[in-house]
Amino acid sequence: TKWVYSFGNGRAEGRADMKNLLGGKGANLAEMSNIGINVPAGFTITTEVCTHYYANDRSYPDELARQVKEALASVEAIMRCQFGDAENPLLVSVRSGARASMPGMMDTVLNLGLNDQTVQGLIKRSGDARFAYDSYRRFIQMYSDVVLGVEHYHFDHLLEILKEDRGLTLDTELSADDWKVMVERFKARVLEETGTPFPEDPEEQLWGAIGAVFRSWMNQRAITYRKLHHIPEEWGTAVSVQAMVFGNMGDDCATGVCFSRDPSTGENVFYGEYLVNAQGEDVVAGIRTPQQISLAGKTKNKSTLPAMEEVMPDLYRELVSIRDTLEAHYRDMQDMEFTIQGGRLWMLQTRVGKRTAAAALRIAVEMAQEGVITANEAVLRVDPEALNQLLHPTLDPKAERIVLTRGLPASPGAASGRVVFSASTAEDWVQNGEKVVLVRTETSPEDIGGMHVSQGILTTRGGMTSHAAVVARGMGTPCVAGAGEIRVHEADRVFTVRGTTVREGDLITLDGATGEVMLGAVPTVQPELTGDFGTLMGWADDRRTMKVRANAETPEDAETARRFGCEGIGLCRTEHMFFDPRRIIAMRRMILAEDETGRRAALADLLPYQRKDFIDLFTIMTGLPVTIRLLDPPLHEFLPHTDNEIAEVAQVAGVDVGTVRDRAAKLAENNPMLGHRGCRLGVTYPEIYEMQARAIFEAAVHVGRESGNAPVPEIMIPLVCTKRELDLMKAAVDNVAQAVFAETGTTLDYTVGTMIELPRAALQAGSIAESARFFSFGTNDLTQTTLGISRDDAAAFLETYQAKGIFKRDPFATLDADGVGELVRLAAERGRATRPDLKLGICGEHGGDPDSIAFCQGAGLDYVSCSPYRVPIARLAAAQAAL
Ligand code: ADP
Ligand code: MG
Ligand code: MG
Fold this sequence. Notes:
Elements: E1 4-8, E2 11-12, H1 19-34, E3 42-45, H2 47-55, H3 64-79, E4 82-83, E5 89-90, E6 92-98, E7 108-112, H4 118-126, H5 129-148, H6 152-166, H7 176-194, H8 202-216, H9 220-228, E8 237-243, E9 254-259, E10 271-276, H10 281-285, E11 291-292, H11 295-300, H12 308-311, H13 313-330, E12 334-341, E13 344-352, H14 357-369, H15 375-381, H16 388-391, E14 394-395, E15 402-406, E16 408-411, E17 414-420, H17 423-431, E18 436-440, H18 448-453, E19 456-459, H19 467-475, E20 479-481, E21 487-489, E22 494-497, E23 500-503, E24 507-511, E25 516-519, E26 524-525, H20 531-543, E27 547-551, H21 555-563, E28 569-573, H22 581-592, H23 596-620, E29 626-629, H24 643-653, H25 657-667, H26 679-684, H27 686-707, E30 713-717, H28 723-744, E31 751-756, H29 759-763, H30 765-768, E32 774-777, H31 779-787, H32 795-803, H33 820-834, E33 839-842, H34 850-859, E34 863-866, H35 871-882
Parallel strand pairs: 4-5, 17-18, 18-19, 19-20, 27-28, 27-34, 28-29, 29-30, 30-31, 31-32, 32-33, 33-34
Antiparallel strand pairs: 1-2, 1-3, 3-8, 6-7, 6-8, 9-10, 9-12, 10-11, 12-13, 14-26, 15-25, 16-20, 17-24, 21-22, 22-23, 24-25
Helix pairs in contact: 4-5, 5-7, 6-7, 14-15, 14-20, 15-20, 20-35, 21-23, 22-23, 22-24, 23-27, 24-25, 27-28, 34-35
The chain binds adenosine-5'-diphosphate and magnesium ion (2 copies).
């Protein structure tokens, strides 16, 4: 087996499409090398070795050592130096790289191969002892942290002591001898901490680092990141070993990170940051304030430091041409890392850049308009889930803002919440129902859990490419980075800025689009849905075959859904209309009534409310279909609980408290989810469904008269499992329809159909379709009843089930295609065999989930229905499913 792939010198054994084997980083290093871009030579150990490592008790395949040795020899030949050589040493970096990029989640070791002998060679080669000892101590620090488990603070502490002794404040003031002393003290500390001397043998160092990178696949933050991004554990990481180039060898050296387009807005400008005389990690770690690459970026960020375009114009032009080459080659926005050593430019990484939703839209639309990609590709490129970021409110431009300070606009969007200073506090507070903004000097990969639950992230150090900025953009969380005027006093849980003190728990607002940090919660407004958004959604609508409806019952929700482009209502849950405080009393009176007369009296009170609801809904949805589900929840849910509630009902109903209490006790259920609910209510108390049907028909007639555009109500009977249930309910509805038509002297079209949410209904779909004009798959209940799992009680074990690989995804979030999906497919087939024009839709939560939508396309559904805010997501997902 080939376990190792070499690259360098304009050639490579790998290619960009070998990401599964070489990881994203390794595949792209190979590709860049192949297309003639200057890349330091190296080799990639495949992800299969990672798999082998974990499957075989953390050991390597037999031939690996020999293949690594050969690959290393070829790097030595290309770079004209020798690994471990005291005269002219080759130094390498050992880099992680999975199939999907997981920025900063796994480990990298730089400057590997240094020891007391080779450092002499580095001094000779660079003519700079200070640089050589600084590199050496950086290596010890990084290697000890990553491989030996001796954490950074040990070394930071030793460095502080030395600086204090020498009366120095900045690292740059330290001399070669100071760094040499540091090297000795660092090594002594490693011996103290581990009981073993720091490894001097470069070979041992190399294998130590390779093992550490493989192990970092299983570190906690990588596991968390994979979970958040649905990255399977089986993928494993590759390890790239690459000749070091140095951005910290003097003022003709630099290192930087850049994007071929602005990752925040998507604007087609070259965008990035760099540092003169620095090593890679320094830019991302946010230790020094980076400088802008282009003059355009400098203006935009109001930077006062000179741009690379001014300082190194020739290298800048070379970089611009590489940017053009790479973007054209990959046909997508690239995120690149480079280092300049002694005036020579080296590319260290390129990948498809992470971007905000707004940028994703703009880049997709503009690249299609530029002819770089097709409109189909543009539609496929935008993650439907990411649209979420664009649909939510932004800060009201007219609202008053108490601006505390301004940082970099690192990830757009508005966020208000209570200030917290640690990721763990963020998690605790959010557990307790608070909304928080995480404020940190800078974030690190350990903070990932807390960042995820925060409304917004504010850092005082670091640039647009800092950890906080990159991760926030990936999560779609608003972020302001590098707000340098803020002083965080973590111990006192306050921050101060321009004389104002803000405490933990105080409300602040971030505007991730402008970088403003404001005191208090600033009001928001609805977003604009035109421009690039409109263009892309237009392309999506032209391509999809399924309709998208909304689950909505209130006028507000219905209006939101229409604004977001829904094509009707797929599920109007009539019970939500009864929970209103003014109505619930009548509802309670109805269900607690001793007999039909009592029930009818209470229902008569509810009728005008219900009619008004439908008039509103039909009016908002003029011209579009509306599916109304008759009462579904267990009566249990409406029972009065507190003494107050019981007294209230007793009073309105004119009976004594004891009677109400007895009746309520009699109606209480052990397992309401499988109890007296759905059409079982209609079967036992037909007057309930009759009242609802009357409200629907009277409202439809009314709206038809007012607007001249009569609605076509689709009346849906819930929880049916036999044809007979549906027939009874349909007859009741038809009777009411005839009565209303006779009373009003009008008729209108309507249909009666059913939810398919019980396995028996799915199996009997062929016979049920004889009476049903449409099916709507109620996949929330269908999942509960197929899996025999109560959704409300699943939290206790679902996580474990996912961790142990029993469920790949939460079946209540993404449709279980093999089980529940099988029933959906079967019901669709059997139903259509009986009635070829049977209309099929889905109205569970799954109707707004892109993967489930793809399933629905395959099952031949006519429409999906989802919550209003997910309508655009579903429109795009449906287009992608159709392509
Ligand atoms: P990550 O995946 O966390 O970005 P990388 O493997 O890209 O980790 O390494 C981090 C940084 O280390 C890079 O951005 C680069 O600046 C620096 N680096 C890695 N390899 C080399 C190398 N061969 N020469 C110089 N710098 C390197
Ligand atoms: Mg990198
Ligand atoms: Mg249901």
